[in-house]
Amino acid sequence: MVSMKSMRIEDWLGFKELEKITGIPGSTIRRYAERFSRFLPAKTVDRVRKFPPDFVDIFKRIHGFYQEGRRTEEIAGLLALEVATTYDVQDVATDVTTVSTVSSPTPEILALLVPILDRFASALERIAENSARTAEAVEKRLAKLEELNNGFINSNFKKQLAQEKDSNLKISSKSDQRLSRDEIVARVVKLHGEGCGAGRIATILKKECFPTLSGRGFWGKGSVRRIIAESTSK
Fold first, then answer.
1. Which of 8, 75, 221, 227 could disulfide-link to 65, CB 3.0 to 4.6 Å?
2. How many domains does one find in the chain?
3. 27 & 62 share domain
């Protein structure tokens, strides 16, 4: 289907005017005009190449495609789908130029699109494969970490139980020796005389499995300080 529209040649734009309107450097616009002449036919007026005002959007579109990182052949394929395929600029003696557009892609454009679409499909397949491999690797890694974590927790738990069992046995052994209050106090006073603080004395008594004066609980700074204070006040 062919659509027709008329544009006054005085309204057509040169490179300087296009640069001012689009904000794209003039050298870049010239390069676009050469690369995509199929979509951007120009008319020479007084030795100046000019383009229809409607082409401003096409130049902006091309610039946007390059900013997105697309390649020239890919842009050509996209233009074939988005804008008119060919333009037939007719030389007329009047001040009106008639431009005819063909909206359906030509066989050449279709041939150009085929490899682009093939590459695009291949890229999608590679992305899907990589995503699947990545998901599988992440799942395996998480399973391994969970296994290691469970092993670590179980190992520490078993070690802690063994230590508590050993500690209880030692405490029980000390208790079986029936240490008197005076013996326990003497040990605290001796350690204090050697320069040990309350915290250090409590730690040593725990390691040596000395029972507390009450026979219950564990040694702490407060218990040690009370014994030291009582022995000092005597």
1. 75
2. 3
3. yes
